[in-house]
Amino acid sequence: PAARDAISVLEHGRLPHLSPIGKDPLAIQVHFHNMFYAYPQRGRQMRVLSGIDIALWDLAGKLLGQPVSKLLGGNFRDEIPLYSHCAGGDFLSKEAWRERAQGLQDDPHGFKAYKIDIHHPLGVPMQQYIPSISTDDARKVHRAYTLAREALGDDIDIIVHCHCELDVTSAIRVAQAIEPINPLFYEDPLAPEFSESWLALRRATRLPLMTGENIALAEQALPFLQHQAVNYLQPDLINSGGITGTRMIADLAALYRIPICLHNVSGLALNMASQQFSAALFNCPMMECTRTADHAPEAASNAPVIKNGKMLVSTLPGLGLDLDQDYLKANRAEGEPWWDEQ
Prior knowledge:
Blueprint: H1 2-12, H2 28-38, H3 44-64, H4 68-71, E1 79-85, H5 94-106, E2 113-117, H6 119-122, H7 135-152, E3 157-161, H8 168-178, E4 185-187, H9 196-204, E5 209-211, H10 217-226, E6 232-233, H11 242-255, H12 268-279, E7 287-288, E8 299-301, E9 306-307, E10 310-312, E11 322-323, H13 325-330
Parallel strand pairs: 1-2, 1-7, 2-3, 3-4, 4-5, 5-6
Antiparallel strand pairs: 1-10, 8-11, 9-10
Helix pairs in contact: 3-11, 5-7, 7-8, 8-9, 10-11
């Protein structure tokens, strides 16, 4: 089943342009790159084991009648500042940016920071590898983010959101193009593993660099910290070892005075786990979430509460999950047994 599922994701997933299915079978190097590097792969076992770790913390909280944040040592904050995501479209049009900015400013959640993706001004699909961008591409990037800043004003922070597309020269070229807008972060411009490339970029720009959603466990985070290669780490609980593994990363980062901003673009369970974790972290100034994080049909109650750009931290036991069992049962994968039927 795991193999069939992985193949199905290639064929029917959200990034079909990376799939080798139906394409030239002799373009082996291209398919290898697209499968393994264009979209950084997160091992299936890592995600499953991380999920088990998160579930154990939830269970411990329920058994002890305490929220997970208390089990982690207590709350440094009861509301988590958030950043979310900007919609795509034409990034080179002033009128389009005016309309897009109005929509973001009217969002009732009150987000004060948004990720803006670089692939739109480059005119390529998300997460398509770009070995080198031209000076003309850099001018498009400069124009897109300049228009974004003009439309959003200075009260909304901008995160320049890459997906590990760029080589070092291009990453530096983009950094130069976006420096005038003073972005909050410059995220994932290079391949996710630590290398001297990150230090070359660090020496070439004053921009705050961020990476980490694709790192697993503390040993992959450590060289970034030892070399002061980035300003922020953004591990993901489901990719980085669950609550236990990510806490190890966060504690290491605190020793180096590096902040942690959790990557969090999944559903209800990860939102609730991420808020509990972030509340208990001294070095967690912000957290990512989607603009629809509070729309959680799988919650019987206690869906995430987002106001004024912040997520309220639940005080219910465990992760604060109150799941609608009927909804879950009605939306099972085909052939998946119900828990009490196994």
